[in-house]
Amino acid sequence: MLASPHSIYRSDIHPLHAVLLAGMLPLYLGAALCDYTYSVSYHIQWSTFASWLIAGALVFNGLAILAAVVGLFRAGRRSPLALAYLVLLVVTWVLGFINALIHARDAWAMMPTGLVLSVVIVVLTLAALFLGFARKRVDTEGVTS
Question: Where does the DUF2231 domain lie (predicted)?
Fold first, then answer.
């Protein structure tokens, strides 16, 4: 019998947390695309679409923050990267809420601030996705064969 180490790569992120985190991107990206479409077409329907997409993204973002807080306080999971990830999610949510307030204005009054803020939020969401899915750990278990 020969014992050899066997590495198992596990993600620190729970599958439900991953769904919530990944669900933010298409909603925030859709809002940014709707803002861009409104800026070139001036059809008010696009600003309304963006408002609804931002509202949905805020729900996903808030639940992802809750999952990140739970993940942060699990035994043995605290790391500077996890804290930076949580802070990034909170900053994204706060800017998303401000963006929702800007989109609550008249459609003409929300431009160009709404578009710029939407693009910034998409970039922050991409960074949060990278940090959220990049956290891995390696478990080495002795396997006998």
Answer: 14-132
